[in-house]
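User: ABC transporter permease, Xaviernesmea oryzae:
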Amino acid sequence: MGKAVSGIDKSAIARTAIPNVSGALAASTLSGRTILILIGVAVILSVGQEVFIPLALALLLTFTLAPIVSFLRKRRVPKIAAVLMAVASAFLVIAAFGFIVAGQVANLADNIPTYQRNIVTKVQALSQAGSGNGVLEHISKVVERIGAEMQDTAEESKEDAAPQSSRRDPMPVEIITRSNPVQTLGNFILPLISPFATAGLVIVLVVFMLLEREDLRDRFIRLVGLGDLHRTTAALQDAGKRVGKYLLMQLVVNALYALPIAVGLWFLGIPNAILWGVLTLVLRFVPYIGPVIGMILPLFLALAIAPGWSLVAWVAALFIVTELVSNNVVEPWLYGSHTGLSPLAIIVSAIFWSWLWGPVGLMLSTPLTVCLVVLGRYVPQFSFLDVLLGNEPVLQPQEKLYQRLLAGDPNEATDNAEDFLESEYLLDYYEQVGFPALKLGEMDRQRGVMTEAQIALFASTTQTLIGNLAEIANEEEAEDNQDPTAPAALEEATEDPDLSAVKRKSVLCIGGRGAIDDAAASMIAQVLAIEGATVSQAEHTMISGPTINLLRLAEIDTVVIAFLNSGSKAHARQAVRRLKRQKPSLRVGIVMPGIGGATESPVAAEDIDADFVATGIGDAVQDALSDGDAVAIKVTKRLGRARERKINPLVA
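Assistant: Predicted structure for ABC transporter permease:
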């Protein structure tokens, strides 16, 4: 580790101020009014889906095509021409996609009856192979019943088609209601026109949104964000960047996924391979379940067209390998995890939007939820959306550690600490996470919200955590011994008394007023041991009047007392004086965090007769291992005795 304590500048040791609890995490509560507003918005979106779905599609397509328009504009293409080129190319691709899918579906429908015999044969084979399995027997019976019904239907149709000369059937009578020809034509045409009308409306909206993009942005800022232009501008840029990049990169990823699927299915002899490739491209926009649905249909077709099982295995292997490559290579390479959504939020949003808008909502669930997360990130009233749906940590490391210690869970606390220590040193962890977590506990103790049992559990769990990190402390100490610049290693290579004194330094660490202070002293002691000092510990009860004589101070060079309560000036002064009366040559230091997270000490060393006062572990370790003479106790002036001498001079 190479953290030589003697002779280094104090800035070399990491410091982190104790956080302000009230400002550490923005509180976002769901009031009754907010819940009613959310319910009302959901009802409006559901009732007016015929209006909002085209608007949502147009908005997302605008986000997607905006980078293309900007690219063309940088090449000096006129604005109208750039917009028309981007929109035309996008909708031509969509139209070609639709025609391909329609043709492939029609071809598949014509070939379905030819696959019936293979399916029935394989189901019967499964039934015979697992004759003791009730599920397979039930499936076999269902298939046989369906086949019998289909055969009976075919025989009945043949009998109806044959001439029946032996009996006279009753003449059928049909009642015809005369209707308006215009109404009949409307009933036939309107269902066909509706999708094309929606598509045309979306195209028009996208064109005008792209043409008026700057004006719409300014109007939005004037409407909702004129009071905070910086926040509103950041929100618009973040939303556009996240949604646009997600849609474009997801399209590229899906295309790179669908291409080998289509080629592989064609090579394996699966009919309509283009259809399945295009279908997987679209279904991968549906989070998690989309790729599974896209794989099931080709597997079913492989089951139907081939008499054996090898084709099914090859198709499954094709999808699994392609999915693994896409998830672990292509996606991290192109965009990684830029949506800002947690995995659970993606699933919940897919369920919500599919319930609200059906299949279209399922396809749009992720980009729409990204917009909600951006809204929650920049609008304080909706910050709960970022907390519920975002993937950013909602608790600071010290708050998370404090919560785990308060819950009496040292195992998860140790796991989190080990993750931190993969790239940092133990001193950094205690300085940035451990000590601030203890400070949070001390502040709650001072507020009276912690019971004695909770204080004891919190302190004991902290001691367990420190013990769990002892192995890492030993590894860091071994690194220091192997480092030629470390004091412990230099002691063996030289006889310099200044360097050898570092290793011989004996330090006693004591808690100031309670069990939480004892835990802070244990952290300091562990770091001092890493730095090569001989360390011993004592509980806070040992510096009280009756028990201080039990401390063995003969071999101790320095005593470090930890006070997490920044208002403990009187207690610190008494502790320092008691120790120095026992051994005047003893160096005594106080560790006391600043008030309100300040880096400056709340008390001065000369005010309490201490040799040093530190606000953090790093400063305490450096001061404890530094050389210097002990500060003598100041003599207290007794004004009353002097006044008595002046009044009665005979008193000698």
